[in-house]
Predict the structure.
Amino acid sequence: MRFVQYDEGRLGLLTDDGTGIIDLTDRLGLESEDPLAEYIESDDDASEYADAEADVAVEDAHLGSPIRRPGKVIAAPLNYENHIEEAIADRDITTDEWFSIEDKGYFLKAPSSVVGPDDGIELPFSDRRCDHEVELAFVMGEDVKDVSTEEAWDGIFGYTILLDISVRGDQDRSNRKSYDTFTVIGPAVVTADEIDDPQNLDLELQLNGEVRQSDNTSDMVYTCGNVVQYASIGATVEAGDVITTGTPEGVGALSDGDTIEATIEDVGSMTVDVTERDRTFDDVNVNKDG
């Protein structure tokens, strides 16, 4: 099943051809403003409606993030070998020497940075480089703590596409990646049973029709299960949390008016437009005098 959140808080299933949405909010009596999180915690089974007629066309709906406000967005740094080499060569990407999740752990992104594909990306400054990063992400289906890598896979509800947008600079990583609209999730969460091998999926990002990133998830340094295992050491990873697994090489700067097309095999594709605020970083940087 492929779950979408549309029209400001309604939960639906995509039809098999991907052109229609079967509404679940009324059928299941969902009441939460974050209906997928409510569904995950419930005993409901949406599969009985999977063959129903579409209630609305995708082209007529506003697609938000399938999970509207995850409790945590957990992110793995530098998790593709070719991106590690790219980051070492380009000091704008990272001011640190090479490191991995084993060296420095994961980082967190603000849940308030989460949006859906139809919400778009807003670059906060006209004078700071902001890069695109396409990633395979997933939503947890149950609470886990201190799990093994093998056990971790059973806790995954489903997979999705995530755009991790990053301001380059010396600020803390979580700061630079947590501006509003900097975590684009969508278009759907595909349940884990429909993905044969999440570690063998092609992923691609096109910018204005030009391929910028193209790789396969088999090239990850740490698997999805590895990342869950590490994140759960001494801390509870909760149902509804989003975990994202890092980006391959090809990251690059975004500009006002750009259009991103992000695709992951068996997961889907989404088109996201980019705008830019008319201000510089110095205009709004910390001023202790007011």
User: Anything to note?
Assistant: The chain has two domains: 2-60, 73-279. The mean pLDDT is 92.
